[in-house]
Amino acid sequence: MVTIKDVARVAGVSTSTVSRVVRKQGKVGKVCRAKVQKVIDELGYRPNINAQALVSKKSNSLGVVIPLVSMPFFGTLACGAEEATKENHYRVLISNAYGSEKAELDAIDSLVQHRCGAIVFHSMHCSDDTLCDLAEKIPGLVFVNRLIAKIAHRCVWLDNNMGAQEATKHLVSNGHTNIAIVSRKNINPDAQVRLDGVRTAISNAGLQLDNTLIGYGTTADLAGGKEGVSALLDAGKKFTAILAYNDNMAVGIVHELHSRGIRVPQDISVVGFDDLLISVACIPELTTMHYPVREMAHYAANLAIELSDNESSSGKTHLFMPHLIERDSVSNVSTL
User: Fold this and answer.
1) Same-domain check for residues 207 and 316
2) How confident is the model over 56-75, as pLDDT tens digits?
């Protein structure tokens, strides 16, 4: 195995110079840096990450804490973070923390024990106060899909309210006034914010949201979508369009409508949220709100690495906006 001493000997420099080139830190002349890098490439030298961690008290590792990587949304998030680690010569450590605050805190603790100074955290269960306490202890901790005013410079978040408004306005512009909603039964902050956005858009259109047209699924997946729309249909509710909490629920809704002989979009239009791969695998292809989760995770990872090296107290916030992707699951009321 090629060592740092081998690189130093061939390049005719000290091991400390090689170390500075590898870490991209410290003063090294351009000519010398290029010479050392050429030797590194030719010999195929790979730094000993564990040894670097022992010296610096921090590893070149980015921790990513998400509920469950097998979920398409969170898998996409993990991919975006990993892209940033490659650019920064970091490695990524992904931790699943599904179902509880304890699971999330245990995952954070494990990453800290592995000397992860930079961590991207998607929390669904920790309170704002708990996350603020963690931020004080971990300079490179960044929260994705969460806005906490006290630590806004650590938050990379999406305007869910505006996204829901845009989705609703699209249906209204196509003549839909009887709009149903299918959301999560155990409402998380995102679901509540999106519901508020729907209410705002409907009110701005001079309409009123019928609360009896809100159906809930136990889970935010295909089964939950089927459950939510089934409850509405079994109760005899009449509507021409459905706004789903996410794409997975929207596809479940499409399947349930199809099983009952209800056509999409000819009889009922359906709009999702997230713009995951499943939205184009669906028939018809799903009109949805594009959630730039991959880009957000990439940005959050870079921010975490930056903060872990040089914490900033800047009040800058990191807001991303969703946008409508029109496909085939919405029709104009005049054609129904």
Assistant:
1) no
2) 456 789 999 999 999 899 99
User: pTM of this prediction?
Assistant: 0.79
CA-CA distance, 11 to 273, in Å (whole number)? 54
Gyration radius of the chain over CA positions: 24
Q: Which of 136, 3, 161, 143 is nearest to 65 (CA)?
A: 143
- Residues with Cβ < 8 Å from 255, sequence gap 6 or more? 222, 225, 226
DSSP string, 180-204: EEEEESS--HHHHHHHHHHHHHHHH
Task: Tell me the per-residue pLDDT of 90-132, one tens digit each, with 9 for 90 and over.
Answer: 999 999 998 899 999 999 999 998 889 899 999 999 999 999 9
Centroid of chain to Cα 23: 29
Q: Which domain holds residue 92?
A: 55-158+293-321
**CA-based nearest residue to 194, from 222, 163, 169:** 163
CA count, 13 A, side-chain hemisphere, 294? 9
Which single residue is written with the structure tokens 């979508």?
225
The tokens describing 2, both together, are 């090629």
- Counting Cα atoms < 13 Å in the Cβ hemisphere of 38 gives 10
Burial of 5 (0-12, 13-18, 19+ CB in 10 A): exposed
In this prediction, residue 55 carries a pLDDT of 41
Residue with token string 């872990």? 308
Check whether residue 35 and residue 123 sit in a common domain. no
Tell me which residue of 11, 7, 5 sits closest to 29, measured CA to CA: 11
Look at phi and psi of residue 175 and say left if phi exceeds 0, alpha if psi is from -120 to 50, else beta: left
| Other CB atoms within 10 A of residue 276 CB | 24
What's the structural domain count of the chain?
A: 3
Could you tell me the CA-to-CA distances from 100 to 110, 127, 239, 330 in Å, in that order? Answer: 16, 11, 36, 37
